[in-house]
Specification:
The chain is α/β, with parallel strands linked by helices and 295 residues long. It is 49% helix and 14% strand. A 7-stranded parallel beta sheet has the order 1-2-3-4-5-6-7. It starts with 8 loop residues before the first helix and ends in an 8-residue tail after the last helix.
C-alpha cells in the first residue's frame, strides 16, 4: 500500500502521457504504468499483489474497447485510471492511495480527470493553462496552489466570473504570483474591474497581460486607478481591447502621477486610441525614466 504512493510515480506517469501524445496505444501505456506499480509491490505480502492484479483486470475489462472513435487517447487512458482508482477506493475505503503528479502545463479537462483519478496535483512555478473551462469551481480548485509564480491562460474563455475567481485568488492563495497573462479570455469590463481591485495592493505581481479581452473604457479606468497606487507592476499589456481616447488619457495620467515610478511599459496597441493619446502615454512613461512597449 505504501509503495503505491511512491513519490517516484510522477516521472513514470508523465512519461506515459508523453508516449500517448506520440501515438502509443492506451492499453500498452496503462500496462506500463501498472508494471511500475507491480515492481514496487514485490516483496510485500502476496495478498496485496493479488488485490492489485484483480483491480487491474477489472479496470481493463470495464473500459474495453480502450477508446471510441473521436475520443482523445489521453482521455481514454485517464478514464481507465479512473476506474482503477474507484477499485482502490473500495479496497482501501478508509484511506485510499493517492499519487503525486507535477505539471507545468495542463488543460482543464486533464486537471479534472487527474483529480478524479486520485492524483495530488502539484504545479511548477510557471504554469500554462489551456482548454475549455466547464465550470468556475474547477478553476477555483486549480487556483488553490500558492507555488505558482507565473500563470498563463492560453486562449481560455474565463469570462467575468472566471476573472472574478482569479482576482479572489490573487488576494489569497496566489500572493506570490509575479506574472498573470489572460489572452482572449472575454473577461470584459466586469472582469477587468475585479482584476484591477486585486492588483491595487498585490505585493509581487510585476507583469499583467490582458490582451484582447473585450475591455472597454470602464474596465480600463479601473485598471488606471490601480496603476495610480500600485508600487510593483513593471509591464502592463492592454493591447487589442476596446478602450478609447478618454480611457487612454486616464491611463497616461495614472502613470504620470504614480509616485513609485516602477512601470516600464504600457501597451495599448490595437485599441481605439489616437496617435496623440499614444504619444501622451509614451511621454508619461519616459518622464519617469521608462520605455513604451515596442511593437
Amino acid at each position: 500500500y505504501n509503495l503505491l504512493q511512491s513519490d517516484q510515480s510522477p516521472c513514470h506517469l508523465n512519461s506515459v502521457l508523453n508516449s500517448l501524445d506520440m501515438g502509443c496505444d492506451v492499453d500498452g501505456c496503462f500496462e506500463r504504468l501498472a508494471g511500475d506499480v507491480r515492481e514496487r509491490l514485490e516483496g510485500v505480502r502476496e495478498r496485496y499483489l493479488f488485490m492489485f492484479e484483480d483491480l487491474l483486470a477489472k479496470a481493463v475489462i470495464k473500459t474495453e474497447p480502450s477508446w471510441v472513435e473521436g475520443e482523445p487517447v489521453r482521455t481514454a487512458f485517464l478514464n481507465k485510471l479512473k476506474v482503477f482508482r474507484m477499485g482502490l477506493i473500495k479496497k482501501f475505503s478508509s484511506n485510499p492511495p493517492r499519487f503525486d503528479i507535477a505539471l507545468n502545463q495542463v488543460s482543464f479537462e486533464d486537471f479534472d480527470l487527474f483529480s478524479c483519478c486520485g492524483f495530488d496535483v502539484k504545479f511548477d512555478r510557471h504554469l500554462e493553462v489551456s482548454g475549455a473551462l466547464s465550470n468556475v469551481e474547477l478553476l477555483k480548485r486549480l487556483l488553490q496552489h500558492p507555488e505558482i509564480e507565473e500563470l498563463r491562460f492560453d486562449q481560455v474563455t474565463l469570462g467575468p466570473e472566471g476573472a472574478q475567481a482569479t482576482a479572489e485568488a490573487l488576494q489569497t492563495t496566489l500572493a506570490n504570483l509575479k506574472l498573470l497573462e489572460i489572452c482572449q479570455g472575454k473577461i470584459g469590463n466586469e472582469g477587468a474591474t475585479a482584476i484591477a481591485e486585486a492588483i491595487k495592493k498585490h505585493e509581487k505581481l510585476e507583469t499583467l497581460s490582458l490582451q484582447d479581452n473585450e475591455i472597454g473604457d470602464e474596465g480600463s479606468r479601473r485598471i488606471a486607478e490601480a496603476l495610480h497606487t500600485n508600487s510593483i507592476l513593471k509591464d502592463v499589456d492592454l493591447s487589442d481591447n476596446r478602450l478609447g481616447d478618454d480611457a487612454g488619457r486616464f491611463l497616461a495620467k495614472a502613470v504620470e502621477t504614480n509616485k513609485f515610478k516602477r512601470l516600464k511599459s504600457l501597451d495599448v496597441y490595437g485599441c481605439d486610441v489616437s496617435e496623440e493619446t499614444e504619444l501622451t502615454i509614451e511621454r508619461s512613461l519616459n518622464d519617469q525614466g521608462s520605455e513604451p512597449a515596442d511593437r
